[in-house]
Amino acid sequence: MKVCKSCSHTVDNNEARCTFCGGKLAEITDKNTPVYLITASGFEADRIVAALEDSGIPCLKKSRVISNHPNPMGMENSLCDIMTPYSALGDALAVCEGIGAGVEKDARAGADDMSAAGADSNNEPEEEEMSEGKKRAVRILSAIAFIIIVALVIYGTDFITGWIKGLFS
């Protein structure tokens, strides 16, 4: 397995240049070499880092600014590349999948060697990943359902309170 010197993506040994950025490759000789795991922003990046740290997996968050213009929502205009030691790549991928963080298929391919190095393998069938449109629709529908449930609880409580007051009037 090789790692790109500029973007830290893992690449198959038969590649001459990095398939992500075209950078020079180096053979991974040290199992503590930091390699790319996932790119995330804001809360998602913090959530992934916390899950990795809770699992005892060391990680490094490298920020990269994607725009110098202020965001009208007041959020940062940056993405974070999350890196992990090569020896922990398989475990880190499992943690990310466990919390529902979308790990790129290329990062999963880089962990193929990790399964031979001790990452546990199970015989469960792989689930299909939802497209971004479906994920967005599920999130929107979940938010609407939550708002409806809260409204029903409030109005239901108000109705029951009025009914009880009516009994004593």
Topology:
Layout: E1 2-4, E2 10-11, E3 25-27, E4 34-40, H1 42-54, E5 60-65, E6 78-85, H2 89-98, H3 105-110, H4 112-116, H5 132-167
Antiparallel strand pairs: 1-2, 1-3, 4-6, 5-6
Q: Would you give an account of this structure?
A:
The protein is α+β, with helices and mostly antiparallel strands and 169 residues long. The chain has 5 helices and 6 strands. The strands form 2 sheets. A 3-stranded antiparallel β-sheet has the order 2-1-3. β1 and β2 form a beta hairpin. It is elongated and about 85 Å long. The termini are far apart. About 7% of the residues have low confidence.
List keywords for this structure.
about 170 residues, alpha+beta, 3-stranded antiparallel β-sheet, 5 helices, about 15% strand
Percentage of residues in strands? 15-25%
Total helical segments: 5
Low-confidence stretches: 112-122
- What are the secondary-structure elements, in order, as H or E? EEEEHEEHHHH
Mean pLDDT, nearest integer?
79
Largest sheet, in brief, is: 3 strands, antiparallel
Strand order of the largest sheet: 2-1-3
Q: How many DSSP E strands?
A: 6
How does the helix and strand content classify structurally? alpha+beta
Q: What is the CA-atom radius of gyration, in angstroms?
A: 23 Å
Distance between the amino and carboxyl termini: 80 Å
Helix content: 40-55%
Short description:
It is built from 5 helices and 6 strands.
